[in-house]
């Protein structure tokens, strides 16, 4: 898992950037607010069993994208790290051909 590795998430950062990442009160990033300025094609992938980046948040991000060239794909049963009784290899993107 990314959080358990010696060089994992938030291992090398300033206090300000750490607070922006992990503190609701001090966060300076707002994906939903910034999504309206997105000018490139977007693919949003949501994991329907994710309790870290919830499906409702993923949908808010998708809805906020100000570009009409966007797609959303939701993976039933997938958790944040694709852990659980089914491995990540069992989830497949739909064929576009």
From TrEMBL:
Record carries keyword Hydrolase: yes
Assigned keywords, A-Z: Hydrolase
GO molecular function: hydrolase activity
Name of this chain's protein: Alpha/beta hydrolase family protein
Natural source organism: Mycobacterium kansasii
């Amino acid at each position: 898992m990314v959080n358990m590795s010696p060089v994992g998430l938030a291992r090398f950062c300033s206090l300000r950037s750490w607070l922006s990442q992990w503190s609701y009160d001090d966060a300076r990033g707002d994906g939903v607010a910034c999504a309206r300025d997105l000018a490139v094609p977007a693919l949003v992938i949501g994991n329907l069993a994710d309790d870290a980046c919830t499906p409702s948040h993923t949908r808010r991000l998708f809805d906020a994208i100000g570009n009409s060239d966007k797609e959303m794909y939701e993976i039933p049963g997938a958790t944040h790290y694709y852990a659980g009784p089914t491995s990540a290899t069992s989830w497949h993107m739909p064929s576009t051909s």
